[in-house]
Amino acid sequence: MTGGYPHADIGLQRPGVSRGLIDVFEHRYLLTLIVRKEVQIRYRGSVLGWLWSYVKPLVQFAVFFVALGVFLRLSNSIDAYPLYLLAGMTVISFFTEAFANGTRSLVDNAPLIKKIYVPREMFPVSSMIVAAINTLPQMIVVGIIAAVLGWQPTALGVAAILLGFVIVAVLSTALGMLFGAINVSFRDAQSFVDIIVMCAVWASPVMYQLSMVRSTLPDWAFTLYLLNPLTPAVELFHYGFWAPLDTSGSDQLPELWLFAGIAVVTSVILLFVGQLVFRRLEGRFAQVL
């Protein structure tokens, strides 16, 4: 007791001051509630419910497989092409869902942001977690298909899959925070994100083999292509699921682990930048929304 007032020696903290992602992890229970709310809202009144998480990716897979695998006959030149395509599309689906929903998350939760203070980073982080929840069953399906085709998992292959998953999780959270903060004041950011999402599937070796890019681009351009964090992430999934079934071995990247490490560093740097921009713009969120 100091000066006759109880508890006056307890340090006070100015309300509404965020410590960024640290607050998100310290309020894990609140994060769980937000994730649960987003999942329930997404499938409220839906007949198929969770099955919708598979309908869109499977329809996209069917369209691309018929167009590329059958009509352009990539199935004849790429071993286990359906598995190659599905593994890569799982990565891209995770990224596009987490990134796009993270960008919209602050605007979509405007009523909550205007009423009470919560660490605002929770909203893009929760969007990433919801996307991850939807992606995990898809990965199980890819694993089952691979096993039917004769795939036998290895410790290094599983590690590659997990590393690719982590890269996409960090990258999509970083970009979701960055563009989500900008989208509060400038809704054009959401349209720009839609363009990025549309191009993402073609900017990494999902539909085509990496060897095709290597043989077409000059060395410096191919290096820039590999510096896209999504490229190593997709290749890590290919390494884990598809490479054991590739009899030629011609499309495997010798520098995979090097560029995977660069992708991790790049994603972490972008997360730091996204946090800085988020903190800079956060004070105006409630007012603008």
TrEMBL record:
One of its GO terms (molecular function) is ABC-type transporter activity. It comes from the Bacteria. It holds the Pfam family ABC2_membrane. It comes from Agromyces aureus. This is Transport permease protein. The chain crosses the membrane at residues 47-71, 83-102, 123-149, 155-179, 191-210, 256-278. GO terms for biological process: lipopolysaccharide transport; response to antibiotic. PROSITE patterns: ABC_TM2 (PS51012). The keyword Membrane applies. Residues 48-281 form the ABC transmembrane type-2 domain. It is a multi-pass membrane protein. The keyword Nucleotidyltransferase does not apply. Keywords: Antibiotic resistance, Cell inner membrane, Cell membrane, Membrane, Transmembrane, Transmembrane helix, Transport. Belongs to the ABC-2 integral membrane protein family. One of its GO terms (cellular component) is ATP-binding cassette (ABC) transporter complex. It is found in: Cell inner membrane; Cell membrane. InterPro entries: ABC2_TM, ABC2_TM_bact-type, ABC_2_transport.
